[in-house]
User: What shape does this take?
Amino acid sequence: MTSNTSTMHAAVLTRYGEPLEVVSVPRPVAGPGQILVRLQSCGVCHTDVHIWRGESVPQCAPSPFVMGHEGIGCVEAIGDGVSGWSVGDRAGVPWIHDTCCHCDECVDGYESFCQQHRAHGLNVPGAFAEYVVCDARFAVVLPSNIDPLTTAPVMCAGITAYGAVKRSALKAGERCAVFGCGGLGLYAVQIASRLGVKVLAVDRDPAKLEIALRYGAAETEIADRDLPERLAAKGAKYHACINFAPTTATWDAMVAGIRPRGRIIAAAMVFEPVPLVQEWLTATGVVVTGTSVGTRQEMRELIAMHAERPLETMIQTIGLEEVSDALIALEQGQSKGRFVISFSG
Ligand SMILES: [Zn+2]
Ligand SMILES: [Zn+2]
Assistant: This one.
């Protein structure tokens, strides 16, 4: 795949739900405060399916509308006023392009809850392209020796799992139940285990539970009809229950498994309501909260963990022209691991 210096290839969303068109578009230019990243890889995330289907329509769509927020590449050019980056540095392109930097959430260190944040591939062009422009303050500093293919999903799936584990305020020796052992859940199993937490992995699929055990889970449970009963009967309950399953079906099991003063963390996007009895909150002091991606500080901690010993994930490498097929496979639950675009071929 070659482009001249003023253009690049990109997979462009022209109509919601229609195949992305791999076309030649103007190569972006790094403006003040920005860096231009030449991509080596970009993961395909389930959020991309929602965007592609028009379920998360931005108020102001980027032009060209290029999705993708799990990019890894190298700095190609640097805009005015940027410090801390050099041409050739390895850079990650995460979900958050920038935040307002002024609201209480931004100032308090909870920037991922900034209601004015702009996202790569939703509000500004993303990384399903040979080049992308990043805000120099929010691009992820990466060591030069990381593998671009297996690190790409860390930019969204990994940081979302890390953010959820951090939000659950778990301490070493405590017990955590991870519901849903897809890509995010399996990251959470590894992250929590490495922090010394005893992890229960829960999924409908026994094969995923086998992987969870290999990744450090202490115990597993099949997510079946009787799971709430089995968890309620356990003597030692869980300090945190984290939900990565895109369903309300795990709610009863989380309520049954959580300890008094435990934390229930919503990490999957579930749009339907769940039953919550307020008297139960007064009796148990359980905290119900949620999380989305993570902060830059959390990303630094996660990258340090990943650089020391890479977080494991199964990936399927694809070309840019295969992204539409990957979106369909993701939507139909037919992926065997995370799809990652390789720009090298
Ligand atoms: Zn994502
Ligand atoms: Zn803000």
